[in-house]
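User: Hello! I'm new to structural biology and keep hearing that structure can be predicted from sequence alone. Could you demonstrate with DUF4209 domain-containing protein? Please show me the input and the output so I can see what each looks like.

Assistant: Of course. The first part below is the input, the amino acid sequence of DUF4209 domain-containing protein. The second part is the output, the predicted structure written as tokens.
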Amino acid sequence: MSNDYQIPENIYSRELCGELYRITQLFPEDQEIKNLLSLVRSPITDESFKIFIDDKNFLISTIKTDNKEIVARMNDFNFIRGGNDKINGIKKAVRLYRELYDKTQELNYFLRSLELIRKVKSVFKDRLVDFEEKTITIFNNLDSSYYQFSLVNTSEFLLENDSKHLLTNISLRLLSKYESENNYSAIKWQIKILNKLKHFTNNDMRIQNALYLEKEGDLLTSEKQERIYYPTILELYTEALKEIKGIADQAVLKDRLSEKIKNEQKGFYELLKKMTISTTLESDYTQWLNSLEIVDFQSGLTALLHLPILDEKSLSDWSENNHNSSLGQFFDKYVHITDKGTVSGSTDEKRFSVNFARNHCRNVIIDLVIKITYRMIQKHPISKNAFASFLMTERSPFIPEGREAFFLEGLYMGFQNNFITAGHLLIPQIENCLKNIVEKNGRNTIKLDEPVQHDNTLGAILSLKESGNMLDGICNKDLLSELNSFLIDGNSANFRNKICHGLTSPAESYHYGIYLWWITLKMVLLTKDFFEIPERDSNIS
């Protein structure tokens, strides 16, 4: 260690990262301080430490310091690595993490102390009651239901029945309070807390979730204004219906939700008829966006994932009942003309109507994605390291092994408002991922009957023909139709083919790159909602 710098003892978290970063700029050749900065920047989790353990270029720092956070992390790292004197090390780490929480009130420090105690519970048996009491005190003082859930989830191993009963009563009071305030984001976490505390069985939790999703949808419905699109309402009712799927004795609730879904679909397409395609939409989403309370990365991500994939059946039904013009009777086909005057596709009036509706809906979603991500970036920009840790924790079965770096780069670009780069990075990876899913399900993607055995094209992978369709039965039909339309249909966006042949302008690359980034985010984080993944290949997050 250089004698030219010292790390202050009483700075933590972001302030500590800032100071270490400043030192690295002053001493760019000092690898130890760079390693220390990487260690302090990373989340305090086993997974993060294991990344450093597996990195042959990472060496644990020998820098001498009394900074509590650095000493705690170093001892924690040493324990996970299995180093010498790890029991004394874990004791020191637990003590320091608790002191760090007391100084900063940042919950992640206390949660890490609990995680370490759980690993060697017998070492801390004389202090379990103390930590249990501390947990209840902290729970009472937390304002965030998400953090309360994190605390209960992590401390469950040490909570005795009396403590669980006390926390249950507190959570029930909060549930009632949040219901009176229509705070459905907080309600969701209180229901999970009550499930963890065994007040709700798993089925009880699903029923409660469905009821509150319905109430949230009803609230948004009651506040509707004319000519404003509310994409979340249909999603809320649909999600509620999914929650109670397979639960007996819920016929009344299922019928009620089904009727509301039908009414919402009908209302949406009535609105769609009156609107025209526009890349800049005039609808005001401010009230709806405010209701989502996008205050951090997680709440923004939830909003993005709730935006729905287009419903093929509803689009088709709408096109059958709403002819586009009286001229349709005189023509047997519609053609799509490129900006060079060439014909890129040909279709009939029905499919033209469906494509017309699709294009409008995409523009609505694009507009919403931009507004949501802007709020996320403006309020709480996520670092690349933090996003890498998030992706690693998710362990999406959509991403083949060895391809994680592409998705890290491509998806992170979206949170930097760089959708041109995101689109170009993600397009080829989507094709490879879809082929990987086909192969995992025991199907073939290679033309084995030809002299030179090439892979099938994306057009073959996304074929909508049920006979021989590679993704038939293993990919959600609405998603398959939308990928086909958006990526390879010459009558629609045809985005993959245009990107691969360099035919998109910067403006079009940015515009449709937003949609591609969003739909990739859905496939990566909600893989099991859209694809059949064999159990042996399914990652458990």
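User: So the tokens describe the shape?

Assistant: Right, they're a compact way of writing down the 3D structure. Reading them back into a model, for example: The longest helix spans residues 349-379.
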